[in-house]
Amino acid sequence: MSYIPGQPVSVVVQRIEIQKLRDGDNLILGFSIGGGIDQDSNQNPFSEDKTDKGIYVTRVSKGGPAEVAGLRIGDKIMQVNGWDMTMVTHDQARKKLTKKNEDVVRLLVTRRSLEDVVRQSMMQQPTH
Amino acid sequence: MQVDLVCRICDAAVSGRSSREERSRSSLPTLTAFNNPNCSHSPADIKAHNFGQTATMEDYDVPSAASILASVKEQEARFERLTRALEDERRNVSLQLERGSLPSDMLAGRTTGMSNQPLAWQQMVMQEQSPSNQTSLAMMQEPQEVVEETVTIEEDPGTPTSHVSVVTSDDGTTRRTETKDHLTNMKVTKMVKTVTTRTVRQVPLGPDGLPLPEGSSPLGSYTDSIDRRYMKNGDRFIMPQATSTLTRSYNNYADSYSDTPDTQFRHYALHDGYGDVTENYGSLSRGVNYRPYRPYMAAGGYRPENSYTLPIRKEDYGHVAQPQVPMGSSTVDLNRSQPERFQPEPYGLEDDRRSLGQDEEEPFDLEPDYSTANRRTLPGRTIREPLRNGPRVRGYEDPIEAELIDERHPYIHGMYPAPLAQPERGSLASLDHMGGRRSPSIDSIRKDPRWRDPDLPEVIAMLGHPIDPVKSNAAAYLQHLCYENDKIKKDVRQLKGIPVLVGLLDHPKSEVHRKACGALRNISFGKDHDNKVAIKNCDGIPALIRLMRKTNDMEVRELITGTLWNLSSYEPLKMVIINHGLQTMTNEVVIPHSGWEHEPNEDSKPRDAEWTTVFKNTSGCLRNVSSDGAEARRRLRECEGLVDALLHALQSAVGKKDMDNKSVENCVCIMRNLSYHVHKEVPGAEKFQDPSALQGPDSSGTQRKKKDDAGCFGGKKAKGRKNGEHDKNYDTLDLPKRTEPTKGFELLYQPEVVRLYLSLLTESQNYNTLEAAAGALQNLSAGQWTWSNYIRATVRKEKGLPILVELLRSDSDKVVRAVAIALRNLSIDRRNKDLIGSYAMRDLVSNLPSGQQRPAKNLEEDTVVAILNTIHEIITDSSENARSLMTAQAIDKLVAINRTSQSARETKAASHVLQTVWSYKELRNALTKDGWNKTHFQPIATGTPKGSKSCKPGYDDTTLPLMEKNQGSRGCGSGDMIPMDEFGPDGYSTINQRDSNSKYKSSDGSSDLQEREPFKNDTNRKHYIRSNRPTVSLVDACDVKPQPVDSWV
């Protein structure tokens, strides 16, 4: 998942669609995010490459909409409703996720295990 | 209060100037900080004032032109009368003056401000005979009138002509002031230079015949420019008048400030110095002034900044106008260069380049010195000096007059900021300046300023001049010249200037030894070690130490320690510094500034360390010398109070959460260096050697493993194994009983220090500090003696492993490297090895380059090799760890390195890891399933035999180069690592050796099965522990740092 800024990234992603839950006035997704280009990426416990300033899922509330939809701790959010999340500030990401007028967010996420699966399958045909 | 404040600002400005001068050669962070506020505020103020004035003038213009003209004329007449009267008076008084009876008065006058001036003051005024001074004289005599006059004049501008003149004068004033300021700034240089010239000419003693042109003095040139300017503006003004006008405009300013005239004036001068004003008016005067002189600059042997000529000043002025910019930028530059130049060696005992920091600050030192010196010197200054010189000087009266003016006339000072420049006082140069200024008419006669800078031999010769101020000025000038100019440094050395400077260190006058020290500091800085050697060869080091003992002056001490720091960067001088200065530096600087007390007072709470420049310099010096091998380490360890004080300072840094500064970095580096090889070098170390390490390699292999196992699970089920018991006991704290508090070098390896280093590792943002703290742990955890056992266990118990693992993600190459090696040493402890294998593997692996693509942080070869060696150590004797290596997807990376790396060392190290992995038969199944086969794990090089025998030399090859490259400096890092591959007495090395032997041997045989049996049995338990662990250890690691932002959505 390490990448060079400015270069296209190819990752294995999963689509996750979360139906927001109405809680009084608030719409909640039931997870928390960390990271962003304005944050200290070194402190991100989930990223493999510590210079990765992407947005990561840091907590998922039990039984919440995110968990139901299959989001997991440590997932890296690549897109929200089509908006790129790999080069945004923390707050920009938060705003994209919490728009009041959207009941559904569609995420593109990637996680290590996804890559592992793909890698495993590719390993089945050793190259030499 | 107000007055005070203004004065201070004034001083600051002056010092800033002079520093600026310096600045051109040196960057002054402090100065910048100090000056900027002043600058920024003062110019603004002034501008506003100017504005106001201009407006006023215009308002009054139309109506009062005629009347103003009249009043001006009248004043001129009055001045003339006054002048005549004064001249008479002066004759009378001059005799008295000669007796030198006035100094105190003069001083008083200067300090208190003219308004208070008693008789003495007036007398001095009287002595002033020069026509140009008329105005000032008049004012002096009738202090109250001054104000009035000012007012009148201000309004005068009404007349078109006079208006012009006024404006001009305004300009002129501003201009002049600025120019003056330049002069002031240049003071150091200028004074020196002038001195030279004069001295040479008038003093027969002068070794150098200065080709000074006929009577053209700096003053002359100065005046010239002024005069010319005036003329340009309105020829109608004769010199004296011009002067008076100037003065008057000054007064105006003063009024607006409504301070005491003195204060105001100074304030004003200050403002002028910072060219906002200049910019406004600048084009006019500047053009006039400096074009004609330009050629001079080119002619000057030195760089333009150095040249004395007015025009140059102007040039400089440009600098002055935006002092912040140049300063700032230079500072920035230095800073920027730091990382590169300072590159801490991976195991960097060597800090040579850090001494750069020193020079960085030079400007500081100089500046403040200067201003302070002036101030300070004043009181002590005796009128006698000038008098004595008088006869030699061509115009006997000149000097005196100059002095008088200086002292008594704030206004003049303002206009010609030089007054603050007092330092010249003794020097003829300043006198000349004054004189020139004072009587422009005279000076204007010699319109041809053909004086020049003194050349280097002349300056060096002046160091031996009988007059102290000349010496100090020459030294200051030398410092200035040497700044960042290796050529000049070399020249000074070849001209035998260094012994003279060293000789001046013992000079009783603080001014002199300070300046000499400043020059030595600049000379000692740089890559040219010959300069350092030259200082040492004339016993400069003992002289510096002597001076350190003698002086209490902080600034001088900064210079001394700075010089020592510079000197300490050269290997051969380190021991000399230790021999002469270690205990002195410790007693005079380290202990007092660290806050440590021999016998702490029970009542008072422990003092905190003060991060002074002196402390920083001294610790930097000690840091450098601490890398000079075993003997140096021994001396430092045994230096009374040193280790105690350093530890105290660090603890206080941790307590105050102030861990990013250079002093802390220096202290940690010293500690790390002193921790190197403690287990071998410390007196009585034999007593603590771990018995298990002393056993033969054959038996110890098994035994050790057992012991470690026990340790690992001791907490859970401590069976009766002896070694396990031992470990377990430690958990309940079974440290050697201490009858008395630990002190001195014993503190280095007490388990208590672990917490200190871990705090630093957690909190510090300074990569060098991080590296050093990790290096200290690495050093302490190396070797086989009781204390390193304790240390390794303590790191675990203090939850240090997650902290270290966390740092594997650091962006800094050297931090990653130091941490990796520390983990390797820590994994001698079996339980540590298991934990590290479980929790660090992923981070270790992620630092490895993968085939096509290096990780985002492009780690150096050394680091990659260190990580590979750490991995190797961790998976040795632990199939479990080898398994986590597999699951961390390391195999493809390792294979890629093994096949494609450009680095032979990386290739070899990776190959060793792969061989080890393959040696675990129980893993082969999984490996094959993943598509790997035996060929992937065999050394690529066909010539490389496999097996332990071949492996060993290979190992040596990979690690040894580290050592060879940089023996002393790297010592602490790889030094500890290397023994393990050699047959060193080190337990570590033995173990490693043994382990690899057995492993490789066993990989083919069946014996290994037995050996590994226990592991397999324990696997479940291990898993259990692991599953618990992560929450504890890893979460801890994260918690240590400020939590990143985390938003619920």
UniProtKB/TrEMBL annotation, chain A:
Entry-linked CDD domains: PDZ_TAX1BP3-like (cd10822)
Protein origin, superkingdom: Eukaryota
SUPFAM superfamilies: PDZ domain-like
SMART domains, alphabetized: PDZ
GO cellular component: basolateral plasma membrane; cell junction; cytoplasm; nucleus
Keyword Cell wall biogenesis/degradation recorded: no
InterPro entries named among the record's database cross-references: PDZ (IPR001478), PDZ_sf (IPR036034), Synaptic_Scaffolding_LAP-MAGUK (IPR050614)
Protein name: Tax1-binding protein 3
Organism: Triplophysa rosa (Cave loach)
